[in-house]
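S1.2 Input.
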Amino acid sequence: MQRLAYENEKLARRPQGHAGEYFIVCTLYYTPKESGFTFEHGFDATRVTKPGLHGRVYPRDFLRSVKKEGFGRIVTPVNGRNYIRYNGGDSYGFSSAPSGGGGTPQAGLHRGLVLETPATEVERVFGSTHWKIVDTGGGLRRWQLDCYYGEDEPLGPGKFMARPRGTTFEYAYSTARVSQ
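S1.3 Output.
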């Protein structure tokens, strides 16, 4: 956080100010797949239910992951809905598709803005340097760009639950320029 603040203060002090350029940290979020949360992979796969799931049961660690990531893909659709979403508190619901939230604008980075990030490690993992801001939610820190990876099974239990199996990427610093 100190580095982000320092680099952005330097940009703001330029005669032209930020001028659409920021120093950010790119992090990852993904949609976890229920199919990966098994005892064999080291997860707490005890079947539990939560409010909003209408008595349907899911692996405990899968629901923990959905709580962190916001959505999770379920193996068996419920009324044509393939996802569980976290509603807040201890409540969940079913959804047709994962979606970004709303949130509040932060540091000049607002919903709908398109950014370009030249960091090669970000392009290698996500296949893109262009990002459209669709969520500025409460879980994001100032100068953070949370890049969507897609659907995947988790890398492993514990702290690895928040990482998709397909990558070990955690974060990267990058400049970001508002695309015209």
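S1.4 Remarks. The mean pLDDT is 89.
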